[in-house]
Amino acid sequence: MNGNRLTAVIGLLVAATSLASMANSAAAKDAKVPSWKDEHAHGFVGCLAQEVASPHYFDLKDAKSDEGADVGTLRLTGHFLGIDDPNDSLNKRVHVTGVYLGPERDNPSGSTILLTDDARVEEGQCP
Predict the structure, then answer these.
(1) Whole-prediction pTM
(2) Are residues 103 and 115 located together in one domain of the fold?
(3) Which of 7, 57, 87, 112 is most buried (most C-beta within 10 Å)?
(4) Measuring CA to CA, how many Å separate 87 from each of 41, 49, 124?
(5) Domain span at 110
(6) 127 falls within a domain
(7) Same domain, yes or no: 21 and 79
(8) How would DSSP label each residue in 76-116?
(9) Bigger pLDDT: 24 vs 94
């Protein structure tokens, strides 16, 4: 293959790759996947509760993402950096930062978030 043909083929491959990349990006945006499901840390706020069944996980009830999306109940795993004693924060509005991991098989009523950065009590009471 001479140099001109090679350059033309490479140019076509670059153009095709670029078009495919743009098509994939558009398809991903059309899928309407919430930004808080992107496997990065995001903020969530809700009412802190503790599960009755052992091992007594803490949950964030009626949770909303920082973007305002209703998330439901989040089972909290990890550390409560920023809250000394989570028991003192029960039934209070709490903001956590963490990674949303999705539904759990053993927790059909909720999902999981892994705390990565912080947790703090906010103004206001829970119903």
Answers:
(1) 0.71
(2) yes
(3) 112
(4) 24, 9, 17
(5) 35-122
(6) no
(7) no
(8) EES--TT-S-GGGGTTEEEEEEEEEEEEETTEEEEEEEEEE
(9) 94
